[in-house]
Every structure is written in structure tokens, then in C-alpha cells.
Design goal:
By secondary structure, the protein is mostly beta strands. About 15% of the residues lie in helices and about 40% in strands. The longest helix has 17 residues.
Length: about 130
Amino acid sequence: MASSYTTRLRFDKQGTGDNSGSWGTVLNTLFDLLDEAVAGMETVSTTGGTTTLTANNGADDQARNAILKITGVLVSNSTIEVPAVSKEYIVWNATTGDFTVTVKVTGQTGIAVTQGKRMFLFCDGTDVYSPIT
């Protein structure tokens, strides 16, 4: 059976009999990626425009991290696009400049995060929302 990847966090699901003699290496990579998903912080630097977070199968990426710290001097409004899968994020808008940061799924509305603020957000697989209304 061939290896595959989980839908949301893109973890390697080893197939039966795969990676003979190297399954420990694959498993240790999985633990590192799990660590990012639960407690990792990714700093995303932007000056504005659209930044699409990387989302790689079985490898390091931006979108898997639990915390997104957005930095930079904004010269225009900024959009941070996350994958269209269910996931929770803590977003910290650490930018400067007189513009906004919105976290969303491509083609959707998303949520604006005010400069200097930290927000708990979640994606339901369609768009990004605040659990507090």
C-alpha cells in the first residue's frame, strides 16, 4: 500500500510495509510537523497585497503552524490566504502602516485583524471566522 497524506495537516500516512528501515525517520518528521501544528509560530512578513501561505504534504510549511505572526510595514491592505481546510489559528498582527490585514480563504471574505491585536480564528474549510461574535 502506498503512503498518502492527511487532508488537513498534510501528515504522511505510511502505507503498510512502506519505508522499511527508515520508518523512524518518517515518524520523527511527523512528530516535528505535529509540534508545528499544535504549538508552532510562523512569522509572515508582508508589505501588503496577497500572501498565500505554503501548504506542503509531509514537509515544513507556513499554514500548518498554530500561530501566525504577521510583520512588516504595510504600504497597502494585506490579505493572508490560508488553505480551505478546517484549522484553528492564533493570528498576531504585528505590522505597522495605515492599512489592514485580513485572513481568509481564496475568494472569500475572511476576518480583519487590527494592528497590534491577537485573535483566535478558525477556518471551516470554506472561509475564516472568529468564534466570538
